[in-house]
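Before going further, it is useful to explain how the protein records used in this thesis are read. An example of such a record is reproduced below.

***
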Amino acid sequence: MTAVAIPTPPAARRTSFLHGMRVVGYRAVRSIPKEPETAVPAIIIPVFFFVVNIGALQNIAEFADPGFDYKAFQLPVAIIFAVTGISRASMLVTDIQDGYFDRLLMTPVPRRALLLGLMIADFVLVVALSVPVLILGFAVGVRFETGVLGVLLFTLMGAMWGLVFTGFPYSIALKTGNPGAVNSSFILFFPFAFLTTSFLPQEALTGWLSAIATWNPVTYLLAGMRALVSDGWDWDAIGKAFLAILGVGILTQTMALLALKGRVARG
């Protein structure tokens, strides 16, 4: 009796990094309209603070400095409030809990693409969230000294900040797989957003808060964005803003990639 050889199934070919990132990103982008509860508060909160801060502090700030445009001063703050903490980390937790993420680990998709693909959706979302805030700013009379190019760079700067900040919730999601822990990551937003020049210039802050603001990267981010609105092409301020984004990005993305590595090892 002649033995019949059973052919060995071909090994799955490892897909390219860009293809894997595109596939994961496309799925994440498609999920955004299905979860409006993640985007609606991100619009309401910055618009609320923008309107309230102008109503409460504009007269005081402009009385102290007659040439000061408080609306232009507050517009970058509204953008930062809109884009900080927005991520698809909740979707990642759901995938971990229902086993979908483990199934992805069995595919030839490069591991980093599983995380960076989600960040494509984050970038799309934070840019979209910036648009209504900018429209509101234009509606109340804010004008950019740097013109259309300045508006585009301003939007890019805010979107890049929102993107690098996602490293925090993704790290927590990958480390814990717990939706409550991911939701609690929003607490990290407060020291970045409030211990800085959100409401008044740094020289108007008290000593301890001014000292903290000096070390807060958002201080330099806001200064760069405000330069685009009010001062023109101040490359020193703009450069420091991008350096602040880069510094935070190195920290947060390293954390996220290490958490991904740990999750893959456990999987």
